UniProtKB/TrEMBL annotation:
EC numbers: 3.6.3.-
GO annotations of cellular component type: plasma membrane
Protein name: LptB_3 protein
UniProt organism field: Jannaschia aquimarina
Root EC class: hydrolase
GO BP annotations, alphabetical order: D-alanine transmembrane transport; L-alanine transport; L-isoleucine import across plasma membrane; L-valine import across plasma membrane
GO molecular function: ATP binding; ATP hydrolysis activity; L-isoleucine transmembrane transporter activity; L-phenylalanine transmembrane transporter activity; L-valine transmembrane transporter activity
Domain ABC transporter residues, every copy: 23-263
Any matching Pfam family: BCA_ABC_TP_C
Keywords, comma-separated and alphabetical: ATP-binding, Hydrolase, Nucleotide-binding, Transport
Annotated PROSITE patterns: ABC_TRANSPORTER_2
Keyword Hydrolase: yes
């Protein structure tokens, strides 16, 4: 428990995988015309690590994610996933190497059920993704989809059309989609945005209970959520890395308090 805020500390995870770097960024820059959205970003995320990337609007957090996933190619610098240089790889090749991502705005099939959405996600990263055959009883992908739905506590909504889900349930569904296949690193882009306090508590539970071999990087404006689910924190400011440390170090850093929390922070 943090003595200043009463916020529970991130739970210790025994047996965490630490077999090298999941993600390595070296001097990554992204220019839009004359504007440097991110500049000289260098960061290493270990396998199995849970990291928060924090900063004010315009700090470059989502642009950084877009470069990591291949939505944008960096103007300069290198990006390595699990030791492999993927700087120029398209997004689908990075997915094949175990990278997953959620977005600030939900990207779901509203006219399909929860079960259909998760099944399609599982099939999309399988060898059967181009098959035109309908799934049959006993299909292993159907079983896997059911497991993921249960893991995010949506079993009772399995047959519900996604358009009829609450916003919090849609966020839970996005986590299930990100877990399809064999993810090794997941990027969560503001998963708590728009959630109620109860839903945020459920989100924290889901993230802290993910399998230990799955690392993640989370962008989040809700400091309470971010500092509860992260083991390490990177602060960004004006497109660059400003500070790195543990949640406790970042929360108690005077420069961070002045820049992001205001002079009145106690």
């Amino acid at each position: 428990m943090n003595a200043q805020t009463g916020t529970p500390a991130a739970p210790a995870r025994i047996g965490s995988v630490s077999t090298g770097a999941a993600l390595e960024l070296r001097g990554v820059q992204k220019m839009f015309g004359a504007l440097a959205a991110i500049a000289d970003v260098t960061m290493t995320v270990a396998s199995g690590e849970r990291r928060a990337v924090l900063g004010s609007n315009g700090a470059g957090k989502t642009t950084l994610f877009n470069c990591v996933t291949g939505d944008f190619l960096p103007t300069s610098g290198t990006i390595r996933l699990f030791g492999e240089d993927v700087t120029t790889f398209p997004a689908h090749e990075r997915v094949r190497r175990g990278l997953r991502r959620t977005y600030q705005i939900s990207l779901l099939f509203g006219g399909l059920t929860v079960a259909d959405n998760v099944y399609l996600a599982c099939r999309g990263v399988s060898r059967a993704r181009f098959s035109m055959l309908r799934p049959r009883q006993g299909d292993t992908l159907l079983s896997r989809a059911e497991e993921l739905i249960e893991a995010v506590n949506l079993t009772d909504a399995s047959s519900t059309m996604v358009a009829n889900l609450s916003y919090g349930q849609q966020r839970q569904l996005e986590i299930a989609l990100a877990l399809a296949g064999a993810p090794r690193l997941i990027l969560f882009d503001e998963p708590a945005a728009g959630l109620s306090p109860t839903e945020r508590g459920e989100l924290v539970r889901l993230l802290t209970n993910l399998p230990e071999h799955i690392g993640y990087v989370i962008i989040e404006h809700d400091m309470d959520v971010a500092l509860r689910v992260a083991e390490s924190v990177t602060m960004m400011h004006n497109g660059t890395v400003f500070k790195e440390g543990t949640p406790e170090e970042i929360e108690n850093d005077a420069e961070v308090q002045e820049l992001y929390l205001g002079d009145g922070h106690g």
